[in-house]
Amino acid sequence: MQTITKFLIALIFLGASSLLIAQETETEKSNAAKIELLKKSKVEIEQEEKAALKKAVEKINQQLDNGDITAEQADILKKEVANKHALNIENRIAIVDSKIALLERNYNGESDTSDVTFIEVSMSGVEIGKGNKPKKYDKRTTSDLVFAIGFNNADIEGQSLNDSPYEIGGSGFEELGWAWKTRLLKNSNAIRMKYGFSFQWNKLDIKDRTYYVNNGDQVELVPFPGDVYVKKSKFRMTNLVFPLHFEFGPSKKIERNDYIRYTTRKQFKIGVGGYTGFKLQSMMKVKFEDNGHDGKYKDKNGLNTNDFIYGLSGYIAWGSIGVYAKYDLQPIFNDQEIDQNMFSVGLRFDMD
């Protein structure tokens, strides 16, 4: 009689287990579909924030063109909106990643028995126990804000830097963007690929009260007309570029019971690569004084500048701060007898 009772109990548990397995299979399919939708939404989030950022930058440029704000104020506003939307991307994607992690942790189709109760049925009785919890590894891709600032000038064909028509102190560049970093090796963080998007503001402070004009197909520096006092003569290019660097250097491995992490904080790193993108705007701007009255001359996108941008760049850093250099392989002006290539040297801050 006891044997029959145990057999009936076993049949009941087996039936219940089969029902639970069938229900869990359907749940796994449903959650797999949810995970795919969430992964697609990450791309949509980036597209939405980039579109909003572009619209905000266009609005700031319009205020600058209308004379409502100065160029310095415009640069500050652009940095603020770029930082805002970069943080929006990070925070919104972090929320989506948390949802994906929750679904994968519970319904990932793998032998994740961390919180799963198992039932063992035998003729001697029924046993209930807990499975083993597997170790969860780190994400291979992280992201961070990138900011760079420094000196800017141009490499002019057949001319030394000492004879440059541009002031060294007044010519500067700024770069603000968002970058993703992916570990390329499975069990090592020695090589990383860093990629993303950046806004670049390259400014040249022109000497000797001259400014750029179109002379046919050639862009030339000529004296500013009239008997006026030229306060500032500046040429500026604003670009949207997509950098790609291969980053090398040691990292610290943090290993816990349930995860592994790699960090490059307080570590030496070197990055080599380049960038490609396009010009958003070019502007020649002169501020002058005529008989005690301030005047302003602006030529927006009127010069024969190249629309496509590409170049080489690299950095050597300790932790989040490094020395950064970039060189435009594409000349500033299109189809010129003498080529000029923009280059920059400064500091780079990776907020990782």
Question: What does it look like?
Answer:
The structure is a single chain. This protein is α+β, with helices and mostly antiparallel strands. Helix content is 28%, strand content 45%. It folds into two domains: 1-133; 135-350. The strands form four sheets. The chain has an eight-stranded antiparallel barrel with strand order 3-5-6-9-12-14-15-16. Helix 1 packs antiparallel against helix 2 (71-106). The termini are far apart.
Which oligomeric state applies? single chain
**Can you give the mean pLDDT?**
83
Biggest sheet features:
8 strands, antiparallel, barrel
Please count the beta strands (DSSP E, at least 2 residues each). 16
**Strands across the major sheet, in which order?**
3-5-6-9-12-14-15-16
Number of helices: 2
Q: In sequence order, what are the helices and strands, one letter per element?
A: HHEEEEEEEEEEEEEEEE
Ends apart, CA distance between termini: 69 Å
How many structurally independent domains? 2
Could you say which overall geometry the principal axes of the C-alpha atoms support? Answer: elongated
- Unreliable residue runs: 1-5, 11-16, 18-23, 108-128
Structural class: alpha+beta
Summarize the structure in short:
The protein has about 350 residues and is α+β, with helices and mostly antiparallel strands. It is built from 2 helices and 16 strands.
Topology:
Layout: H1 2-65, H2 71-106, E1 117-122, E2 125-130, E3 141-156, E4 166-167, E5 172-183, E6 191-206, E7 210-215, E8 218-223, E9 229-248, E10 252-255, E11 260-263, E12 268-290, E13 293-300, E14 308-318, E15 321-328, E16 340-350
Antiparallel strand pairs: 1-2, 3-5, 3-16, 4-6, 5-6, 6-9, 7-8, 9-12, 10-11, 12-13, 12-14, 14-15, 15-16
Helix pairs in contact: 1-2
